[in-house]
Amino acid sequence: MFRFNSRFPQSNSLLSRRRLILGAGSLIVLGPLMMTQAPGAPGSRSMENHPHVAAAKLIKSKQEWRRLLTKEQYQVLFEAGTEAAYENRYHDHKANGTYACAACGNRLFASSAKFDSGTGWPSFFQTIDSAAVQERPDNTLFTRRTEVACARCDGHLGHVFTDGPKPTGLRYCMNSAALTFFPANSSARN
After folding, report:
1. What is the pLDDT of residue 28?
2. Which of the pair, 2 or 178, is modelled with greater confidence?
3. pTM
4. Which of 13, 135, 173, 188 could cross-link with 182 by S-S, CB 3.0 to 4.6 Å?
5. Domain limits for position 36
6. How many domains does the chain have?
7. How many CA atoms lie within 13 A of 53 on its CB side?
């Protein structure tokens, strides 16, 4: 699904009607399933954090996301911010488990796909499932890059580059603030 935001002019009333229709449809179809999610996860105040691969879009207002996330998480996820290199939670994290979206809990990366890229941000050579993320062109900062966003909530995660290790040759360079971690031995389903 294409995400409309300030980079793409769109009628606010049309956008509001679209979100209302899509949100209501998702609630009717997925409401009972969403009620079974485990509340909260370490590093986030979001109540949607139960790791799973995106099944349907999760649409919330800016005010709802601001209430659920820390200031840094909101700035990275929904304003496409970037945290400082080497001064973030997961750049040197080595535990076994699953990295998920800090906003919605969508499973994104397995710890077995994490590697030290030397960039100061957590890097992965593949996603858990290609449906977990969406990629879109990013032509900001006078360069062409590929932005990576959560397929469930459209939150900005980071960028993907083609200078990664084998077997994929990809480097998913992510912001720690956009991630939460579920240890392999936790009660959360991985």
Report:
1. 35
2. 178
3. 0.71
4. 188
5. 12-183
6. 1
7. 11
Confidence of residue 142 (pLDDT cuts 50, 70, 90): confident
Residues labelled catalytic: 173
CATH no. for residue 53?
A: 2.170.150.20
With CA atoms as reference, report the closest residue to 152 among 37, 22, 59. Answer: 59
Q: Is residue 86 part of a domain?
A: yes
What pLDDT shows up at residue 45? 39
Q: Is residue 4 part of a domain?
A: no
